[in-house]
TrEMBL record, chains A, B, C:
GO MF entries: 2 iron, 2 sulfur cluster binding; metal ion binding; monooxygenase activity; oxidoreductase activity, acting on paired donors, with incorporation or reduction of molecular oxygen
A Pfam family annotated for this UniProt entry: Rieske
Localization: Membrane
Protein name: Iron-sulfur binding oxidoreductase
Keyword Metal-binding (UniProt): yes
Organism of this sequence: Rhodococcus hoagii (strain 103S)
InterPro entries (UniProt xref): Cholesterol_7-desaturase, Homotrim_ring_OHase_catalytic, Rieske_2Fe-2S, Rieske_2Fe-2S_sf
């Protein structure tokens, strides 16, 4: 076990965002991305897990539905062996329990159409929306009531872009979205913080995309005032924090550290800005190149795994523009940014998990000055918790 | 976690078979199959585990013996590196502790023939019987006393076959038995219930053997009266429940479910009947074809694994009849029935385990009308428990 | 589960070495081997774990340093992605925290040279020594004070060799050491006891090196008096026990066991002697051949794994002698002794672990007369405990 040879504690700070420390399974009662639209062909079923909720996502007559992935009878996953016998229903492959997609009610049992359970039992459903190629699901307490609008759980629309046309919002019309997602080891908060973190540039020091484009990347970026990371709290709307890299009066790049004989590399300056939004969505404006935007979702699966979503959006309406974006996505952005560059972050997050799991890292970390934006995020995420996911596992007899 | 949107509970029913719910490691003080005879050549040792008991099965001078598979000295498994230095003994490969097979007493230590432990220590032995190609072991409390006859832990002899010669009993003379066994994920009770279950025909909907033989398989079979599943409780003999599919007055096949637009397939009727016996033995008469019988054993290994035994028996005494059966077994019954058809059951059981393990399924299931025979089985299995296996694992210091 | 059919308990004996039974994670505040010198090139870092302590071993300007392998910031392992930017420091690859190797103090952060943590935080270091090709680290309580000399944690220098020149000590000048180490399943005590154990010759019965050299190996060696295993307790120096196989008045070989029809094999007598030293170092004099010595270290990693070290030392100063030893090591001692012969011990230790882990073996073993030297070792190891490693893992929130 590591032991510090100097005193140091962040317990005082920890108390300022106690709900966040508690949110090991994630925040409940939020919209999360479930699947990319093109992963769910009509008539099919896919199983996912968000915050411990096993959910079957089913497309029927073109529309995406989300329903509990546990048959009420013997508890098997419906998605283990998808069976769709009619539009508007999903059938359990084991004993034929058939549920309506709208309300989850048990509408028939294949081998026993007169069973007394029919009409008197069911499984829960989840609100689902599909916009611009992403299927979102609202996951949380069954009695939560009407969910807030999807837009309140996405980054705010950018209006103050200093140099260019503001990057598109995920719900904008006339945009194209491409992306990937994958299950990673690591708590969702470690992933989210890694995305925003102004102090981790070192892991990208040698990434091929930066070398190829000769991008100027400082060793670090240091806040000059407390307002360098802006808190954005829109009533009934998005909550997040933004590193105002667009404001030279707020940030100073570190270009040289003679103690370790390191200098910043690259000569081509490039403007971008990072912000992180509840319940765990990163926006990187003008990344990896100007006029596109990279969004990342850190969707809690359980307390030690998250689904890492990376999507890139751009404005494109003509076939020619769309084809051009797709070509650049397939042959440049996907391999060099989403995979090449971000894989360094994946390594870092997975390497961080051990300490937080085995050594109670949330109470045994030592934050530094560079962590101002991490702390701002934690406080923001702790401000209005709608609910907390909890372990669904029950003890055996 | 699944949450019902309707009320529903089987707690009242659960109380009627409480000993069964408790039997997560299996029922103790019963005969269980240990090995097929041809898996144990003379002079060899194989290690098995039944209900948490690690047992070394050793054949010496033709006879099969069962003895604890833990050396009393440092606790290694004797079967880890079999060492048989003389008939009637088994020797631990580590320090040479040598035990008599009849009573388990420590008869010598290879490197120290005068050790004071010799004659004053030993390991337990288990009663073993070998009949018709199967070695059975009686496993349970060491002080249980004289075990009941093996026949009391096997299905009863069939006497009321309606159409054909009754199928042979496992202890009959003049029969041939072929089969396989394998370790599966899943509690033994989930496996046993799956075997009897009249409600799971859907998982066999598309099995090749049914399509090839054009067998008429209904969507379900529904009991018309409470006596459709017969309770069989023979004094000092087998205890079990039988789905009386031979009685058209008791069962009605479901051939059509218009709600999901499904109809039963196949045109060739075929008579069979299923029954399940304590401590976990299935008999399927005239399956997969008329005049043979399929037995299945669901032998508890621990609370989450069982050894799945599938054997087929037939009457055959002449070399020609035996050769004909073996040919059909190797090229039809093994690939299409024991593997092809039953692998759908294997999938179902393994898929069911997660709910029962993580979500306390025994108290969080919702049984339906089709489960009448499952409940009859649970009550029968709970009626006269001879004992319960328990986890053998002890806490570390 | 094993159950004795006879009474038997070693509880009375167990109380005589209670601190040893407690030492499941190993004894703290001792010197342990960390790496072979040639495994750590200049400028590189390797991560190891001893008694639950994750340690980064770094060579800088030729010298080996040991430092905590957990960055104080977010707890990642420094060795996960070694980053050495200047002599005398080690840098965390994630956020650039840079520590001095001498005292572990935080000397800079790559991207934030003015961070207020710099100079006010740090990680612990461990004393390290490098002698004759082995890097040793002193691991234990951070406030232990000045460590005892390395020699106190190695076998004593042999002075009473009866037939030959005494074998060399690990700290002697003019010697050559070759060896290997590997991570094994099994508590370190099971490994140490296996090394000394006079009763386990049976596992080596058929080893190729013995057959090739026609070595006379008895079935067992039995002590004639209580002093057969000598206790060696040097003030401020090594503590150990030695099987005095050099004294024919103390030991009698067992050459025949008619009960199991076994006789000792081999005709060529060979003198060797085994001794075991705190905190877990075996010395086998004149093994595998006369004039060389085999040392083994059983270094605790956690409570269920140890690092198994096997090294052979000989006197050699001329290039010709060194080349001759290396040739014999590569083509005879390594394959036939360290791997061939000792792999039988590896098998035995790993097979023993299950019983001690799952069935509380330390309180459920039945020692025999042959275990006199095991008990002597346990008492010696329990006599002056400097400290105990404990599980470093903390509960999660």
């Amino acid at each position: 076990m590591t032991t510090s040879s100097h005193s140091g504690s962040s317990a005082g700070v920890t108390r300022q965002y106690a709900p966040y420390v508690k949110a090991d399974w994630g925040y409940a009662n939020h919209w999360y991305p479930a699947l990319l639209s093109d992963e769910l062909e009509d008539g099919t079923v896919k199983g996912i897990t968000i915050g411990g909720h096993d959910i079957a996502v089913r497309r029927s007559a073109g529309k995406a539905y989300a329903i509990s992935d546990r048959c009420i009878h013997r508890g098997v996953k419906l998605s283990a062996k998808p069976m769709c016998l009619s539009e508007g229903t999903i059938t359990c492959w084991y004993h034929g329990f058939t549920y309506g997609l709208e309300d989850g009610s048990l509408t028939t049992i294949v081998g026993n159409p007169d069973d007394s359970l029919i009409g008197n039992a069911g499984i829960r459903t989840y609100p689902a929306e599909e916009v611009n190629g992403i299927i979102y699901v609202f996951v949380g307490d069954e009695d939560y009531g009407t969910p807030p609008p999807l837009s309140s759980d996405l980054p705010a629309r950018v209006t103050n872009d200093p140099n260019n046309t503001p990057v598109p919002h995920l719900l904008d019309e006339g945009i194209v979205i491409r992306g990937i997602h994958r299950k990673l080891v690591g708590n969702w908060r470690l992933a989210a913080e890694n995305g925003l973190d102004p102090g981790h540039l070192l892991v990208h020091w040698d990434n091929q995309i930066l070398v190829a484009l000769d991008r100027a990347l400082p060793l670090g970026v240091n806040a000059l005032t407390d307002s360098a990371t802006e808190e954005i709290d829109i009533p009934d709307g998005p909550k997040g924090v933004m590193n105002r890299y667009d404001r030279p009066d707020l940030y100073q790049p570190v270009l040289d550290n003679p103690k370790v004989n390191m200098k910043a590399r690259g000569t081509v300056p490039h403007y971008f800005r990072t912000s992180l939004w509840v319940p765990g969505v990163l926006m990187v404006e003008h990344w990896p190149i100007t006029d596109v935007v990279q969004y990342e979702f850190y969707v809690p699966i359980d307390d030690h795994h998250h689904e890492y979503w990376e999507v890139i959006a751009t404005r494109a309406t003509t076939d020619e523009d769309i084809a051009e974006f797709n070509f650049k996505y397939d042959n440049f952005m996907l391999p060099l940014a989403l995979e090449g560059f971000n894989n360094s972050d994946v390594f870092a997050r997975e390497a961080t998990e051990e300490h937080y799991t085995r050594f109670d890292g949330w109470n045994n970390e030592m934050l530094c000055d560079m962590d101002y934006s991490i702390i701002a995020w934690r406080k923001m995420a702790a401000r209005y918790p709608r609910g907390f996911f909890e372990s669904p596992f029950q003890d055996e007899d």
